[in-house]
Input
Amino acid sequence: MSHYRVLIPTLAPAQAGKLLRLATSFTAAPESGGTLLGIIEVPPDHSLARPPVPGEAYRTLLAQTTRIATRAAPPLAPLVRIAHVAAQGIREAALETGSNLLLLESGARDDGLWTNALEDLLYDPPCDVALLRTEAAAPPITSILLAVRGGPSAELAVQLARSIRASTGATLTLLHIFDPRQSPEERAREEQTFASLTAQVNGPVIELKGSSTNVRQAIVKEAQQHQLLILGATRSLMHRPMVLGAPLQRMLRRLPGTVMIVKKAGVPTPRPAPARTETRAAITEQVDRWLTENTFDSREFDDLQRLVDRKQRQDLTISLAIPAMPGATGLSATLRSLKLALMGRTPLLDEIVVIEIGGSAASERAARVAGVTVVRPADVLSRYGSFPGSGDAQWKSLHVLKGDLICWIDPAGLPPQPRLVAGLLGPLLTDPDIAYVTAFSRRPPTAAPDPLTDFAVRPLLNLLFPAFSGLIDPLSPDHAARRAALESVPFFTGHGLALGLLLAIASAHGPRALAQVEVGPPTRRGPADRRAMAFAQLQVCLKYLGDQHRLQLVDQVNRTIKQIQYEDERYWIEQTELEDTERPPMVTVPEYFLSRNPGARPEPV
Output
């Protein structure tokens, strides 16, 4: 294992300090990192949408815990998973995060449910696993005892001991107890194994050899002289269902200090995937889980320096683009505020670009006064022409913007605050599995429903795409995403942009790649033709419904809206073409490909 991807599940973050400090021995290694996983258990007869602790509050607690417990090391990424069974939630998180080491704490909670979860995970671990037993008054680790007993987990135990020694500066002692009843051949094999493992330590080590018919008693006696004992799981423990059985529990009770039992993950037995039908109950549980795990509060990301640290560790660049429509007011103040807060005081953004739509001299003047770059969509990729609307401008802006993460905000609402931008970027910087984030505002209980969202779009999603029915504002113009996700999907040029991106990115990466963040009070949007907007959303839904079933539904439907007018005591029909054009994925545009890959040649079409 050249680097660690550590997953640390906890049911009690406030009590996980010792476990987290030990985890820094692995996460501080080159190219390593870790995730602090908060598991919210929900009784089987309760909905996952109503957990006992809100997901955003639990994430905040996890982030505070890791900052306090690991001050001198890279902070762990907080992750919340909700599950009816803790072990299943941990398994799913290990797969999602690509973890190669699972740190579990024995006695983290004194109930049968946590013990059952430990036994489940230790019997068939999703990756290499280390079980820790810590004491409340355990002294600092200055001496490590590694009891070498051979077996499939011995090399992993040596590697973890070596990492802890490098982190703590402790002395490392290797102990092997021989059984005097062994044959000379068995003794010789164990001598050879001990020598081989000792050679893997790569540094100063104390070697101890002894002989006893009671191996456990000999280890307990020597462990009294050390603060950390590391044991590799024996062959009998590798395949025993009750890995926390009585002999092991008795031994743990007799051992002082901190004890780590290490088990190498076995090769999983392939099992045929059962045929799965998406029942209504399964979809409901999926939506409930997504709503809890992937809904954030912008206040979780108020610590801008923490976001900057994450950005720098991941070697990312970030662009903010502001599409300025004609008539936008307050743009100059908005640009000054965002530039000062997010580029001056804290370098979260690498660039701010105004996308000037409609030829407004006032918008262009405001941008130049603020020292911000101005881009006219008509001047970008001009040979492909231009379409009216923000969607086409945002598609073209991909060719101009330099960032790995791209954020677009709408200046037509309330003056955008730095918290809005940080809130949209926060999930992308803290969770590598999230590819697209959209904003929403919590409306007061007495607020009237939004006719377009509540009476048209959300019912459509519930009916045709129920997995996305947890989206609160699927039409939000404030959104952020990874360039890799944006450049590989088509863009609708008009009102269908936001919903089209949500469905396209979810189709390519799965619903877990989407997230939503609450950004404060409801914004005031400028006037828009809601009939045209509703028409566009219907086109988008039909397009992706057709894609699912390999049907050309959009090509077979009407592209015009006919509105009945009354004038001079007669009725007549006004017909308007409302087709929302779809731009191809930007990565297929030769100019874009060459600008991102200097010296390369695009594949012939």
